[in-house]
Amino acid sequence: MVSELAFLTIAQASRLIAKRELSPVELTEACLRRIEMLDNQLDSFVTVTAGRAQAEAKAAEAAIMASGPLSRLHGIPYCLKDIFETAGIRTTAMSKQLADNVPARDSHCQEKLAAAGGVLLGKNATWEFAHGGPSWDVLFPPARNPWDRTCSPAGSSSGSAAAVAAGFAPATLGSDTGGSIRSPAAACGVAGLKPTYGLVSRRGVLPNCFSQDHAGPLAWTTEDVAVLLQTIAGHDPEDPGSADVAIPDYAAALTGNVKGLVIGVPTTWLEKEAPPSAATMAAFEAALDVFRGLGASVRPVTLPPIEQFDDAKKIIAISELFTIHAADLRKRPELFGASLRYRIIAGGLVRAEDYIQAMRLRTELARSLQAVLSTVDLLMLPTSEPAGKLEPVLPSSLFTRPSLTAAFNVGGNPALSVCSGFDARGLPFSLQIVGRLFDEPTVLRAGDAYEKAMPWRDKRPVL
Amino acid sequence: MTKTPTDDDIVRLARQAGLDLPDEFMAELIDAYGHVRQMTERLSAVRPHGDEPAHVFVASAFLPGKD
Questions:
Q1: What confidence score (pLDDT) does residue A66 get?
Q2: pLDDT bucket at A339, cuts 50 / 70 / 90
Q3: In a domain, B38, yes or no
Q4: Which band of pLDDT confidence, cut at 50, 70 and 90, is reported for residue A355?
Q5: Is B66 a member of any domain?
Q6: Superfamily for A2-458?
């Protein structure tokens, strides 16, 4: 019964709660029991706020019994990557630098989720400051992949994706500067959305790279991602990058109809510049066939070279990262994990000219990307390879390995990762769906239609 | 491509940047900088004078009542 309740999606649970057939207390207790019994296998949580969750669940239950739910998240348990500041709850970014950091104020996203009546279960493991990892020399051990505990859940929102896949929580938030929502979502077989830059406030999210950080939701289904996005999207004057745009009804966009959509595939990237494995490409082609079968058309498109996106992204990121951590790098570099330190320390030697040139290239690349997206409704490509073993990786791999995700941080476009099957080991394949700026409705519509056409959401990892 | 800096050059640059690091960490920096330099070299294309970077100062964001 615990597992049955804990594996409910947000949409399923909220319907039952609204009909008063499910108690938020019962649902919260089911999640807490699974975390207590099984998270020692995954290390997906760094802090569990059990007492607070029980109190919030009781309050939600009383309010719902008195006057019905405030929102679809009322009484729904969720967790947060441990870079979202939470008032009175330690927020560490997995770093020894912040071992005793207890914020006085909630992040904007936490304020929104609390106001919607959500129940905070705790904080999830991340790569250190959402950038360096996996690491064994930071504050907590790295999270593991629930489909195979010897495998990596990828990063940096590692614990968030692992917790959702494992049925510890139906909802979580992560952050994405180069793929850090989408890659863990891919590795753990869940849905994860990097929204358009500025759609979701970054206020109170410990920064990685101001100009490319995105906060966004992870959940078991795209439908649930839409529910979460509805709650956290919106203008925040305290985030300088926040967009003042109308927020559509994301759930209403999930019509199941993708007939007539035109899907672009960046063939040069996939065939020459960053070719995925044959198995990953076969899963991707099969996913495209599903969309063809649903009435969409597929055509090749040409994007600027992937190396240009990587160069712009990484020079901008390393410069901003260094600036954020400069004081600690000068005074107490030993308190950083080796992976993060390696990945940011050379940022101190990047000249202003290089940073500005990278920002100029970003303008050019973002324009090119939007121009291509004006000719198609969506881009599709794999998010990443299925998960590899959880083991130390050369920190230099960040600089040398081309990324299929970072381009959309450079462009700021919405990008969703959904599960697209399983490999011979039983580990998830992934499909990345990229949309026009602020066109989350089309991205979510496509992800939801695909999930409903395929059986992948029926299979859960066994712990 | 400009002249490749030696390890001593990089140590000097690091110290100018306020990074007076232990040898172990300086070795990390020297190795990482090799990768960063490859990227910055690729970014060194000549661009038109008026080619705007992706960040600009937006004065309207600082109007009274905006925060």
A1: 97
A2: very high
A3: yes
A4: very high
A5: no
A6: Amidase signature (AS) domain (3.90.1300.10)
The helix or strand, by DSSP H or E, that contains position A420, with its residue range, turns out to be strand A415-422
For residue A372, the tally of other CB atoms under 10 A from its CB is: 17
Cβ-nearest to A358 among B17, B18, B43: B43
Has residue B30 been placed in a domain? yes
**ipTM metric:** 0.92
Interchain proximity B53–A366, CB inside 8 Å: no
State the total domains in chain B: 1
Q: Domain boundaries in chain A? A: 2-458
The confidence score (pLDDT) of residue B1 equals 52
Å from A332 to nearest chain B CA? 10
Query: Under an 8 Å CB criterion, which residues of B touch A?
Result: 10, 13-14, 17-22, 25, 28-29, 31-33, 35-36, 38-40, 42-45, 47, 51-55, 61, 66-67
The arithmetic mean of pLDDT across residues A300-321, rounded, is: 97
E runs forming strands in A292-401: 297-301, 378-381
Asked if the C-beta of A330 comes within 8 angstroms of chain B's C-beta atoms, the answer is yes
What is the average per-residue pLDDT within A134-153?
98
Q: Is the pTM of this model over 0.90?
A: yes
Burial degree of A326 (CB within 10 A; 0-12, 13-18, 19+): middle
User: Please, are residues A392 and A134 in contact by the beta-carbon 8 Å criterion?
Assistant: yes
